[in-house]
């Protein structure tokens, strides 16, 4: 896998600065995680701190340490920061959706409640865009290829500064940009619930061979299988395997270079192919105007 160099910083900053007009500002939803930290640092380098606004959303299950982390980031980068408290609004949203559509929304759905947190954050992005802000996606290539992202959620953005970089490469970029050790060393997580981490999420996706729908329930035996899969995973192994798939290597070759067993490689391939049909599907298809 290609190593990230300081030249990558210049390329991304040029992408950002060339996109926005002189009178525009950028808004970034920061989580206290490495992806949004990196995107914030890149945007500040590209256009200056006075043109970058950060916001953080407090929701049920959000660790308190995240708030401290984003406050430190805003202070370090000299950016303005807004804090929004939307605790339990995801529950209210799903219940109201169920009241209007009992077929497609279920209050007993575990994942629907948590994904609704992302939907609420998107509403904030929309409100900022209505006030002429440009917003940046924080999705990386690992999330994009595996489908661990939401097309009308964290993937949304006028600019996707790091979607071409695997998570391993984002970590390398973070070190070059000066991301704090505390952020670099924490386990990646969407913070949908306390104790969640990305490898835990990915293990259930691999077990399911696709994104886990809201109505899916796992038996105790399946939970044990997911934990068995998780013990074999690491961020580096996943990214090496994804790079292998991107290079059109065989499953045997991918298993060898990544250290993942053949079965997990097959399951990962199912995730990738499923993401092509859902997460990567072209948006806003349209016909040409009538002549």
TrEMBL record:
<protein>
    <recommendedName>
        <fullName>NH(3)-dependent NAD(+) synthetase</fullName>
        <ecNumber>6.3.1.5</ecNumber>
    </recommendedName>
</protein>
<keyword id="KW-0436">Ligase</keyword>
<feature type="domain" description="NAD/GMP synthase">
    <location>
        <begin position="9"/>
        <end position="205"/>
    </location>
</feature>
<dbReference type="GO" id="GO:0005737">
    <property type="term" value="C:cytoplasm"/>
</dbReference>
<dbReference type="GO" id="GO:0004359">
    <property type="term" value="F:glutaminase activity"/>
</dbReference>
<comment type="similarity">
    <text>Belongs to the NAD synthetase family.</text>
</comment>
<dbReference type="InterPro" id="IPR014729">
    <property type="entry name" value="Rossmann-like_a/b/a_fold"/>
</dbReference>
<comment type="pathway">
    <text>Cofactor biosynthesis; NAD(+) biosynthesis.</text>
</comment>
<dbReference type="Pfam" id="PF02540">
    <property type="entry name" value="NAD_synthase"/>
</dbReference>
<dbReference type="GO" id="GO:0003952">
    <property type="term" value="F:NAD+ synthase (glutamine-hydrolyzing) activity"/>
</dbReference>
<dbReference type="GO" id="GO:0009435">
    <property type="term" value="P:NAD+ biosynthetic process"/>
</dbReference>
<dbReference type="GO" id="GO:0005524">
    <property type="term" value="F:ATP binding"/>
</dbReference>
<dbReference type="InterPro" id="IPR022310">
    <property type="entry name" value="NAD/GMP_synthase"/>
</dbReference>
<keyword id="KW-0547">Nucleotide-binding</keyword>
<keyword id="KW-0520">NAD</keyword>
<keyword id="KW-0067">ATP-binding</keyword>
<dbReference type="InterPro" id="IPR003694">
    <property type="entry name" value="NAD_synthase"/>
</dbReference>
<dbReference type="GO" id="GO:0008795">
    <property type="term" value="F:NAD+ synthase activity"/>
</dbReference>
